[in-house]
């Protein structure tokens, strides 16, 4: 299912599972995907991997990239997502399987479809055409007009069209 996903997009999905489990969720919600996307975008994913960190050193998992979100926007989105997350739920072990919610599945499928649609368009040379990037997931999340998560993103000033333009320019991949 995740073969067409870039390493960064796979990391977002992996971390969304970890975040959902830590919050005691029964499934991976769009909110978890977006929170993980922000952590990955800001380079804060190392905070989720304490077992990989050597004290006093930085973890460099992939090549550096230009963040899409400003630190302020990332913090504002995370604050907006907080009320949408389950409160006081018991964390689940990472060994427990956790499905994607229906809305989460729509985001993943929407991201894959968007990537495929862009396949015929001109892409920057460093992006593998047809490869799902984290911004494809962000644009797909913004596509759901009824989503509380999309509303949080829009309140910060994000629009699907802006994200698509960023995907096409390739400066955030």
Report the end-to-end length measured between terminal Cα atoms: 21 Å
Q: How would you describe the oligomerization state of the chains in this entry?
A: single chain
Share of residues in strands: under 5%
**Helical stretch tally:** 7
- List the uncertain runs: 125-129
Description:
The chain has 173 residues and is an all-alpha fold. Helices cover 48% and strands 0% of the residues. The protein has 7 helices and no strands. It has helices at 7-22, 30-41, 71-81, 102-117, 134-143, 148-155, 160-169. Helix 1 crosses helix 2 (30-41), helix 2 packs antiparallel against helix 3 and helix 2 runs antiparallel to helix 5 (134-143). It is globular, with a radius of gyration of 16 Å.
Essential attributes:
173 residues; mainly alpha
Give the helix/strand layout.
Elements: H1 7-22, H2 30-41, H3 71-81, H4 102-117, H5 134-143, H6 148-155, H7 160-169
Helix pairs in contact: 1-2, 2-3, 2-5, 4-5, 5-7
Summarize the structure.
This protein has 173 residues and is an all-alpha fold. Helix content is 48%, strand content 0%.
């Amino acid at each position: 299912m995740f073969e067409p996903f870039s390493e960064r997009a796979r990391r977002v999905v992996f971390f969304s599972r970890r975040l959902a489990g830590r919050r005691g969720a029964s499934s991976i919600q769009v909110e978890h995907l977006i929170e993980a996307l922000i952590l990955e975008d800001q380079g804060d994913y190392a905070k989720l991997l304490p077992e990989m960190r050597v004290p006093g050193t930085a973890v460099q998992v992939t090549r550096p990239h230009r963040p899409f979100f400003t630190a302020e926007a990332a913090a504002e989105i995370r604050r907006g997502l907080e009320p949408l997350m389950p409160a006081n739920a018991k964390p689940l072990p990472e060994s427990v399987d956790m499905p994607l919610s229906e809305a989460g599945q729509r985001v993943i499928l929407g991201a894959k479809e968007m990537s495929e649609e862009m396949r015929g368009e001109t892409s920057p040379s460093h992006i593998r055409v047809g490869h799902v990037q984290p911004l494809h997931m962000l644009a797909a999340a913004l596509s759901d007009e009824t989503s509380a998560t999309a509303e949080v993103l829009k309140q910060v000033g994000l629009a699907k069209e802006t994200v698509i333009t960023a995907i096409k320019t390739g400066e955030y991949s």
